[in-house]
Specification:
841 residues, mainly beta, Immunoglobulin-like, Ubiquitin-like (UB roll), seven-stranded mixed beta sheet, 6 helices, 7% helix, 55% strand, globular, transmembrane, transport, FimD_plug_dom
Length: 841
């Protein structure tokens, strides 16, 4: 057996990569590359093989490819590649052109062969055979234009049947002067998927010295209705009302699911309209930053796919004409909650029984919102129950001076008080919101005011008050919502450039029945000084306290708190020192300093240590705490220890997921609402990129813990500690899952001993460059490189290989191989092979 030296690998890489370099040079340097056959006169290199190498061609046949249109992923398709005029061309039928690519029917031409440039005028393509990626460039004017981030409902992967549970287990032990205590807790978030239905349950198990109990908090099921961009839910749900208070109920709900919309259609952003005199570049800026650039043809243009931004400020639209002229105009941009894009509408319908009381409190509500233009959004709603009706109406107006939103709600309620008699309550509540960003860097993100009359009632208050009467509690029920008279709020931020940023928030609530006001004011300052992050905070709160169930204190209690925080990254940033200091007007202080980080060579392991001091009012205490956590393939583990004056606490926790699928059970890290099962035969140890600590198990299965529904997700595998005898034939896939789906991603692998054959014909001549290597089943398993070197991965110990380099009767040969007796743990086995030509294929 030949020994393989380190330098040999370098030679092998050069030999194998040389033809690839030539192929890549073809793509980059020339539109047409022709290999000069005269350079190889007298050799066995044939023109057909050279032609294939020169044009980076693939044999005719069906291939599963990732289809991209203008560099945007569309779908994964099985396409037929047909050889025509000495080229191998991808064939796309009219249905695919119209439904997947989105070409307008007026621009489709009849063709007798697969020529993209003829079938659609001006279309060109680029095919990457290694990645099986086909990118077709089509003039934008020929396309049925889709907003950025659009994915066709036909491409949404609904996933497969699966049962899973996320668990969080915690053990807690504490000791103090009164003794010790032990407790355990397990939280379970479980799910079952069948077709489009997703069943979910949230529950927990608790155990302590007092006993054990199991609690199921919520069970529900939902399914997508793609045709209407909606979702249907049944079970224990919550209302989705813009004008009414949230209500937990058991019943049915149908609502718009904005996650199905492209990211460029979610949230609020104005529609930009303009006119270009020539073919022009349109640049849209906000706060001096480019947020959108596109090229438009002469005439009217519309930009309706701006991404919603996290900050506000008017948009500057620049039109750069082909003749060098530049024109510009301003589009106002401010938003408050409830702002919707022009032409966009959403709704929510809820029917069911209230979950917070034991009575048969059934209700129904419906809300509807629509964006009529950039400057106007309307909303309305109705909520009804036995003896209760409420109506809401509102609007949002966007102006050059900011966005103003207003909502009014009217309620009419009858409450049967039994011995106390029936009472009628009617009233209304009104609210205003305002938002604006200024060029000075000041932003009023939300300024609000609400006022409600004494007779206004939320439905939850009505249900609770009826419950009190039914259980002979009389008028003992009181609610902050209907006792509250007014509420005012303000949130402002000020950017100070290099000096940092300043933020202010304030809230004031006033009540009836003599209860004192609840006020809160908060002022924060943040600045980065070099690598040090500095934060200062001052808050003041006035809080009224309830003395018993029916009486409230007329006095509000004041509390002032000053805070200082510092953080400093160390070295390469894997460690951070942070400290916090707070002081109250009552004289108490708290100081904490700690070190946290991850191991530089293992980001899955993190740790933290801290010490703190508490003092004031004649009391002082010191404490110490330490924690460590590790993300493993099957769970996330964490341990904590803390000790202070007269106490000690120890806790340990583990969280992860158990997934039951058609092929067995997978243990992994906790999964999100939407996730993927990864399957790659024999690829134990392959790592899932962007999912720290996750790798494939001994059966070749693993989990991608979280996917974004209705958007393109790229899932990549790294070889990791995969066995040397296993090769990943593909390392990445793109999937567009529906919400809550458990999708399966199967990656092709090849297992076998890696062998490099030095092939020669029986005449002593070298096998031609570019010859195809066919296995026992005539499957293509490789290509002959320079000097007759043929790299293959063989799963069988014995067999035969056939080499084909042309269509002639003598342009193919075969040889038998026998690997019996050779070590199976070598990284590469090099063997000579004599290939005998045969007359019949």
């Amino acid at each position: 057996m030949l020994k393989i030296r380190g330098s040999f690998w370098s030679n092998i890489k050069i030999i194998i990569m040389s033809p690839l370099f030539v192929l890549n040079s073809y793509n980059v340097l020339a539109e047409e590359y022709i290999f000069d056959e005269s350079l190889l006169l007298g050799s066995r290199y044939n023109s057909l093989a050279l032609k294939k190498v020169s044009q980076v061609d693939i044999p005719s046949g069906k291939y599963q490819v990732d289809l991209f249109i203008n560099d945007q992923f569309v779908s994964r398709e099985i396409l037929f590649f047909h050889e025509h005029d000495k080229e191998t061309l991808p064939c796309i039928n009219d249905t695919l052109w119209l439904n997947k690519v989105g070409v307008l029917s007026d621009y489709l031409e009849p063709v007798e062969f697969c020529d993209l440039g003829v079938h659609v005028r001006g279309a060109t393509y680029n095919f990457n055979a290694q990645k099986l990626r086909l990118n077709i460039a089509v003039p934008q004017a020929y396309l049925n234009r889709k907003p950025r981030g659009y994915t066709s409902p036909e491409t949404w992967n609904t996933g497969e049947t699966a049962l899973f549970t996320n668990y969080y287990g915690n053990y807690y032990h504490s000791e103090n002067s009164q003794g010790s205590r032990d407790s355990a807790y397990v939280g379970l978030n479980s799910g079952f998927n069948y077709g489009l239905w997703r069943v979910r349950n949230h529950s927990s198990v608790r155990h302590s010295d007092l006993g054990s109990d199991f609690t199921s908090f919520r069970t529900y099921a939902n399914r997508a209705i793609p045709k209407f961009y909606s979702e249907l839910g049944v079970g224990q749900l919550s209302t989705r009302s813009i004008g009414f208070g949230s209500l937990a109920f058991t019943g049915i709900q149908l609502h718009t699911d904005n996650r199905m919309l492209p990211i460029s259609q979610r949230g609020f952003a104005p529609v930009v309209r303009g006119i270009a005199q020539t073919t022009a570049k349109v640049v849209i800026k906000q706060d001096g930053k480019d947020i959108y650039t596109t090229t438009v043809a002469a005439g009217p243009f519309v930009v309706d796919d701006l991404f919603p931004t996290s900050y506000q400020g008017d948009l500057l639209v620049e039109v750069h004409e082909a003749n060098g002229q530049v024109s510009s105009f301003i589009v106002p941009f401010s938003a408050v909650p409830g702002s919707m894009r022009s032409g966009r509408a959403q709704y929510a319908l809820s029917l069911g029984k209230n979950r917070n009381t034991g009575n048969d409190d059934y209700f129904a509500d419906f809300v509807y919102e629509i964006g009529l233009s950039n400057s106007l959004t309307l909303n309305s709603g109705i909520r009804v129950a036995d003896g209760y009706q409420a109506l809401s109406a509102g609007s949002v107006i966007n102006t050059p001076y900011g966005a103003l939103g207003g909502t009014a709600v009217y309620s009419h309620a009858k409450i049967d008080g039994g011995f106390y008699g029936e009472k009628l309550y009617t009233g209304w509540r009104a609210g205003l919101n305002y938002s604006r960003a200024f060029s000075s860097g000041t932003a009023i993100t939300l300024a609000g005011y609400k006022y409600s009359t004494e007779g206004y009632r939320e439905l939850t208050d009505v249900f609770q008050q009826r419950y009190y009467f039914d259980n002979n509690y009389g008028y003992g029920f009181s609610s902050a919502s209907y006792l509250q008279k007014t509420e005012m709020s303000l949130n402002m931020t000020q950017q100070l450039g290099d000096a940092g940023s300043l933020s202010l928030s304030a809230t004031k609530r006033q009540y009836r029945n003599g209860r004192g006001d609840d006020d809160s004011y908060n002022l924060s300052y943040y600045k980065q000084i070099g690598i040090v992050n500095l934060g200062l905070n001052y808050s003041r709160m006035y809080t009224s306290k309830e003395l018993d169930g029916t009486t409230v204190a007329a006095k509000s209690y004041k509390n002032d708190v000053f805070g200082l925080s510092l953080s400093l990254p160390l070295g390469s940033g894997h460690q951070v020192i942070s400290s916090n200091y707070t002081h109250t007007d009552k004289g108490s202080s708290n100081f904490n300093i700690g070190l946290s980080g991850t191991l530089e060579n293992d980001p899955t392991f993190s740790y933290g240590i801290s010490t703190s001091y508490q003092g004031g009012d004649g009391y002082e205490s010191n404490s110490f705490s330490a924690s460590a956590s590790k993300r493993t393939n099957i769970a996330n583990l964490r341990a904590n220890y803390s000790q202070g004056h007269n106490y000690r606490q120890i806790s340990a926790s583990a969280n992860g997921a158990v997934v039951l699928h058609k092929d067995g059970v997978i243990l992994g890290q906790s999964v999100g609402e939407t996730f993927a099962i990864i399957e790659a035969a024999d690829a134990q140890g392959a790592k899932v990129r962007n999912n720290w600590g996750s790798e494939l198990n001994s059966k070749g299965y693993g989990l991608m813990s979280s996917l974004v529904p209705y958007r393109s997700n790229r899932v990549v595998l790294d070889s990791g500690s995969i066995d040397d005898n296993v090769e990943l034939l593909e390392s990445q896939q793109v999937v567009i899952p529906s919400a809550g789906a458990v999708v399966r991603l199967k990656y092709d692998t090849r297992k076998g001993l890696p062998v490099l054959f030095s092939t020669k014909l029986a005449t002593g001549e070298i096998v031609p460059l570019g010859a195809e290597i066919l296995g026992d089943q005539d499957e293509n398993i490789g290509t002959v490189g320079q000097a007759g070197l043929a790299y293959v991965r063989l799963a069988e110990q014995t067999g035969k290989l056939r080499l084909v380099w042309g269509e002639g009767r003598k342009q193919h040969c075969q040889f038998n191989y026998d690997l019996t007796g050779y070590a199976t743990d070598v990284r590469l086995l090099r063997l000579p092979a004599v290939c005998s030509t045969i007359d019949n294929r």
